[in-house]
Amino acid sequence: MDSRDSPLYKAVRFCLAGTRIEEVTARAAGVMERLKDDDWEAALILLEDLGDACPQPPKFWGLLADAARLLWLQQEVSWYEWRRSEARNGALRAELCLLPAGEGGRKVPVLPGEVLRPMWDIGQRTPEGELSVSIAFLWVEGRTPLKPGECAPVRLLPLTPEHWRHLKPSDVITMHEMRPPSGTARVIEVMPPVMAAP
Predict the structure, then answer these.
(1) How many CB atoms lie within 10 A of CB 96?
(2) Which of 72, 83, 95, 111 has the highest local Cβ count within 10 Å?
(3) Tens digits of residue pLDDT in 88-113
(4) For residue 83, how many other CB atoms are within 10 A of its CB?
(5) What's the chain's average pLDDT?
Protein backbone atom coordinates (compact mmCIF):
# COMPACT_ATOMS: atom_id res chain seq x y z
CA MET A 1 0.00 0.00 0.00
CA ASP A 2 1.88 3.09 -1.16
CA SER A 3 -0.70 5.31 -2.83
CA ARG A 4 -1.47 8.78 -1.53
CA ASP A 5 -5.10 7.76 -1.94
CA SER A 6 -4.75 4.96 0.60
CA PRO A 7 -7.23 4.87 3.51
CA LEU A 8 -4.47 5.90 5.95
CA TYR A 9 -3.62 9.08 4.04
CA LYS A 10 -7.33 9.82 3.71
CA ALA A 11 -7.79 9.33 7.48
CA VAL A 12 -4.97 11.79 8.23
CA ARG A 13 -6.41 14.38 5.82
CA PHE A 14 -9.86 13.80 7.31
CA CYS A 15 -8.55 14.51 10.83
CA LEU A 16 -6.81 17.68 9.70
CA ALA A 17 -9.72 19.08 7.67
CA GLY A 18 -11.00 22.19 9.39
CA THR A 19 -9.18 21.60 12.71
CA ARG A 20 -6.96 24.00 14.60
CA ILE A 21 -6.39 21.67 17.54
CA GLU A 22 -2.64 21.44 18.16
CA GLU A 23 -2.85 17.90 19.53
CA VAL A 24 -4.53 16.63 16.36
CA THR A 25 -1.98 18.41 14.15
CA ALA A 26 0.99 17.05 16.13
CA ARG A 27 -0.35 13.49 16.13
CA ALA A 28 -1.16 13.66 12.42
CA ALA A 29 2.44 14.74 11.74
CA GLY A 30 3.64 11.60 13.54
CA VAL A 31 1.36 9.46 11.38
CA MET A 32 2.70 11.11 8.22
CA GLU A 33 6.27 10.29 9.30
CA ARG A 34 5.33 6.61 9.66
CA LEU A 35 3.65 6.65 6.25
CA LYS A 36 6.75 8.17 4.64
CA ASP A 37 8.75 5.30 6.15
CA ASP A 38 6.19 2.76 4.82
CA ASP A 39 5.43 1.68 8.39
CA TRP A 40 1.69 1.19 7.78
CA GLU A 41 0.89 -0.77 10.92
CA ALA A 42 2.52 1.84 13.16
CA ALA A 43 0.59 4.57 11.32
CA LEU A 44 -2.63 2.63 11.90
CA ILE A 45 -1.91 2.36 15.64
CA LEU A 46 -1.13 6.09 15.87
CA LEU A 47 -4.37 6.93 14.06
CA GLU A 48 -6.30 4.73 16.48
CA ASP A 49 -4.65 6.58 19.38
CA LEU A 50 -5.65 9.87 17.78
CA GLY A 51 -9.24 8.64 17.51
CA ASP A 52 -9.17 7.74 21.21
CA ALA A 53 -7.75 11.13 22.23
CA CYS A 54 -9.96 13.25 19.95
CA PRO A 55 -13.33 11.59 19.17
CA GLN A 56 -13.69 11.00 15.44
CA PRO A 57 -16.84 10.51 13.32
CA PRO A 58 -17.83 7.24 11.63
CA LYS A 59 -16.01 8.01 8.36
CA PHE A 60 -12.64 8.09 10.15
CA TRP A 61 -13.17 4.63 11.68
CA GLY A 62 -14.36 3.31 8.31
CA LEU A 63 -11.08 4.44 6.74
CA LEU A 64 -9.13 2.65 9.48
CA ALA A 65 -11.18 -0.50 8.86
CA ASP A 66 -10.40 -0.25 5.13
CA ALA A 67 -6.68 0.12 5.88
CA ALA A 68 -6.74 -2.88 8.23
CA ARG A 69 -8.41 -4.96 5.49
CA LEU A 70 -5.60 -4.06 3.09
CA LEU A 71 -3.07 -5.10 5.76
CA TRP A 72 -4.92 -8.38 6.44
CA LEU A 73 -5.49 -7.45 10.09
CA GLN A 74 -8.89 -9.07 10.60
CA GLN A 75 -9.16 -8.49 14.35
CA GLU A 76 -8.45 -4.79 13.82
CA VAL A 77 -11.05 -4.67 11.02
CA SER A 78 -13.69 -5.91 13.48
CA TRP A 79 -12.56 -3.41 16.13
CA TYR A 80 -12.65 -0.42 13.76
CA GLU A 81 -16.06 -1.43 12.42
CA TRP A 82 -17.24 -1.57 16.05
CA ARG A 83 -15.79 1.90 16.66
CA ARG A 84 -17.55 3.20 13.53
CA SER A 85 -20.86 1.96 14.97
CA GLU A 86 -20.06 3.62 18.31
CA ALA A 87 -19.35 6.93 16.58
CA ARG A 88 -22.59 6.66 14.59
CA ASN A 89 -24.94 5.60 17.42
CA GLY A 90 -23.24 6.39 20.72
CA ALA A 91 -22.12 3.76 23.23
CA LEU A 92 -21.34 3.08 26.87
CA ARG A 93 -18.28 1.79 28.66
CA ALA A 94 -18.93 -0.29 31.78
CA GLU A 95 -17.29 -2.65 34.25
CA LEU A 96 -19.08 -5.98 33.78
CA CYS A 97 -18.98 -8.68 36.46
CA LEU A 98 -20.23 -12.08 35.31
CA LEU A 99 -21.91 -14.32 37.84
CA PRO A 100 -20.06 -17.58 38.55
CA ALA A 101 -21.33 -20.55 36.54
CA GLY A 102 -22.55 -22.20 39.77
CA GLU A 103 -24.83 -19.22 40.48
CA GLY A 104 -26.63 -19.41 37.16
CA GLY A 105 -24.14 -17.43 35.12
CA ARG A 106 -22.74 -18.37 31.73
CA LYS A 107 -20.53 -21.44 31.59
CA VAL A 108 -17.99 -20.23 29.01
CA PRO A 109 -15.89 -17.05 28.90
CA VAL A 110 -16.58 -14.11 26.63
CA LEU A 111 -13.66 -13.88 24.23
CA PRO A 112 -12.08 -10.59 23.15
CA GLY A 113 -13.38 -9.67 19.71
CA GLU A 114 -16.48 -11.87 20.20
CA VAL A 115 -19.61 -9.73 19.93
CA LEU A 116 -22.49 -10.81 22.15
CA ARG A 117 -26.05 -9.51 21.98
CA PRO A 118 -27.46 -9.89 25.49
CA MET A 119 -30.55 -8.25 26.96
CA TRP A 120 -30.17 -5.66 29.69
CA ASP A 121 -32.33 -4.49 32.58
CA ILE A 122 -31.68 -0.74 32.39
CA GLY A 123 -34.44 0.22 34.81
CA GLN A 124 -37.34 0.41 32.38
CA ARG A 125 -40.78 -1.09 32.99
CA THR A 126 -43.81 -1.78 30.82
CA PRO A 127 -47.02 0.21 31.50
CA GLU A 128 -48.13 -2.81 33.55
CA GLY A 129 -45.00 -2.58 35.74
CA GLU A 130 -43.23 -5.62 34.25
CA LEU A 131 -39.51 -5.69 33.51
CA SER A 132 -38.70 -4.30 30.06
CA VAL A 133 -35.27 -5.30 28.75
CA SER A 134 -33.25 -3.64 26.00
CA ILE A 135 -30.61 -5.19 23.77
CA ALA A 136 -27.05 -3.92 23.50
CA PHE A 137 -24.14 -5.55 21.73
CA LEU A 138 -21.20 -6.24 24.05
CA TRP A 139 -17.45 -6.09 23.34
CA VAL A 140 -14.87 -7.04 25.99
CA GLU A 141 -11.99 -4.54 26.06
CA GLY A 142 -8.43 -5.80 25.97
CA ARG A 143 -7.17 -9.20 24.94
CA THR A 144 -8.03 -11.34 27.99
CA PRO A 145 -11.19 -13.51 28.00
CA LEU A 146 -13.84 -12.54 30.56
CA LYS A 147 -14.48 -15.73 32.52
CA PRO A 148 -17.54 -16.55 34.64
CA GLY A 149 -17.13 -15.00 38.10
CA GLU A 150 -14.72 -12.30 36.84
CA CYS A 151 -14.98 -8.61 36.00
CA ALA A 152 -13.64 -6.62 33.04
CA PRO A 153 -14.23 -3.37 31.16
CA VAL A 154 -16.68 -3.72 28.29
CA ARG A 155 -18.26 -1.54 25.63
CA LEU A 156 -22.00 -1.59 25.00
CA LEU A 157 -23.62 -0.63 21.72
CA PRO A 158 -27.38 -0.25 22.25
CA LEU A 159 -29.64 -1.58 19.53
CA THR A 160 -32.15 1.18 20.37
CA PRO A 161 -29.98 4.08 21.63
CA GLU A 162 -32.92 6.24 22.79
CA HIS A 163 -33.81 3.62 25.44
CA TRP A 164 -30.38 4.10 27.04
CA ARG A 165 -30.16 7.90 27.14
CA HIS A 166 -31.19 8.15 30.80
CA LEU A 167 -28.10 6.23 31.98
CA LYS A 168 -25.15 8.01 33.54
CA PRO A 169 -21.81 6.98 35.11
CA SER A 170 -22.17 4.84 38.27
CA ASP A 171 -25.58 3.48 37.24
CA VAL A 172 -25.81 -0.31 37.60
CA ILE A 173 -27.51 -2.43 34.94
CA THR A 174 -28.13 -6.17 34.77
CA MET A 175 -27.20 -8.49 31.91
CA HIS A 176 -29.54 -11.32 30.89
CA GLU A 177 -28.73 -14.06 28.42
CA MET A 178 -31.45 -16.36 29.72
CA ARG A 179 -34.07 -15.90 32.40
CA PRO A 180 -31.76 -15.53 35.44
CA PRO A 181 -29.29 -12.63 35.27
CA SER A 182 -25.80 -13.52 34.06
CA GLY A 183 -23.99 -10.42 35.32
CA THR A 184 -24.12 -6.82 36.45
CA ALA A 185 -22.37 -3.80 34.98
CA ARG A 186 -21.53 -0.40 36.42
CA VAL A 187 -21.57 2.35 33.80
CA ILE A 188 -18.18 4.10 33.54
CA GLU A 189 -18.75 6.42 30.60
CA VAL A 190 -21.57 7.44 28.28
CA MET A 191 -20.27 8.24 24.79
CA PRO A 192 -22.62 10.24 22.54
CA PRO A 193 -22.54 9.91 18.75
CA VAL A 194 -19.74 11.83 17.06
CA MET A 195 -20.78 14.22 14.35
CA ALA A 196 -18.48 15.23 11.51
CA ALA A 197 -17.35 18.84 11.53
CA PRO A 198 -19.33 21.03 9.12
Answers:
(1) 24
(2) 83
(3) 999 999 999 999 988 888 899 999 98
(4) 25
(5) 91
